[in-house]
């Protein structure tokens, strides 16, 4: 019984010490106000010091403009997390639109700068970035058949503190009739 009591006491001490250390030394748990300030400063930097492409998807019957987009570290194919609530809502809106318009598709074009290194299996870093965003869109409920990807070099694209803000473009178009026919005639 004494051995079991010492184990329980050890567990309790570990929990208390861990909680005290977490409260006193956690860098993110006590910073909700600071994170909003940093986010506002980052938004300002995006708009003033680096080429920034907002999340914008438009055609004749649909318009979605979000003042945020997927951001990437320089020479990286995967976008940075976490995504803003505004961008998550934009992805949800696009999913709802494409779900109710099976005749539409979205072209996702990833951009890359001349000096970036492509360490992905894709033909260029733009295609790798577009594919990363495509995978995110599919995970959020958009049909893979309604997404096409492409990549291209953008000479004006320059990282700010090693981050590219919004090197992704979206364009809506009509699906080919062959792609749209899922049932045999």
Chain-averaged pLDDT: 84
Helix content: 40-55%
CATH top level label of one domain: Alpha Beta
How many helices? Answer: 5
* Percentage of residues in strands: 15-25%
The main β sheet shows up as:
3 strands, mixed
Trace the largest sheet across and list its strands.
Answer: 5-4-7
Which structural class do you get from the secondary structure elements? Answer: alpha+beta
Distance between the termini: 77 Å
CATH superfamily of one domain: OmpA-like domain
CATH fold-level label of one domain: 60s Ribosomal Protein L30, Chain: A
Element order: H for helix, E for strand: HHEEEHEHEEEH
SSE topology:
Elements: H1 2-25, H2 32-49, E1 55-58, E2 63-66, E3 71-73, H3 85-100, E4 104-112, H4 125-139, E5 147-153, E6 163-165, E7 168-174, H5 177-180
Parallel strand pairs: 4-5
Antiparallel strand pairs: 1-2, 3-6, 4-7
Keywords:
alpha+beta; 185 residues; 5 helices; 60s Ribosomal Protein L30, Chain: A; three-stranded mixed sheet; single chain; two-stranded antiparallel ribbon
Provide a concise account of the structure shown:
With 185 residues, the protein is of the alpha+beta class. Helices cover 42% and strands 20% of the residues.
């Amino acid at each position: 019984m004494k051995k079991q009591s010492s184990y329980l006491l050890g567990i309790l001490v570990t929990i208390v010490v861990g909680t005290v250390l977490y409260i006193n030394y956690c860098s993110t748990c006590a910073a909700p106000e600071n994170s909003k300030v940093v986010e506002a400063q980052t938004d300002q930097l995006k708009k003033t010091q680096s080429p920034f492409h907002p999340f914008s998807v438009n055609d004749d019957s649909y318009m979605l403009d979000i003042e945020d987009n997927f951001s990437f570290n320089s020479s990286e194919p995967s976008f940075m997390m976490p995504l803003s609530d505004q961008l998550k809502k934009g992805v949800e809106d696009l999913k709802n639109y494409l779900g109710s318009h099976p005749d539409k598709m979205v072209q996702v074009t990833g951009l890359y700068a001349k000096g970036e290194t492509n360490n992905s299996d894709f033909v260029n870093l733009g295609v790798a970035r577009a594919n990363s965003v495509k995978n995110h869109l599919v995970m959020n409920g958009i049909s893979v058949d309604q997404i096409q990807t492409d990549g291209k070099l953008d000479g004006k694209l320059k990282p700010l503190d090693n981050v590219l803000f919004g090197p992704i473009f979206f364009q809506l178009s009509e699906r080919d009739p062959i792609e749209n026919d899922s049932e045999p005639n």
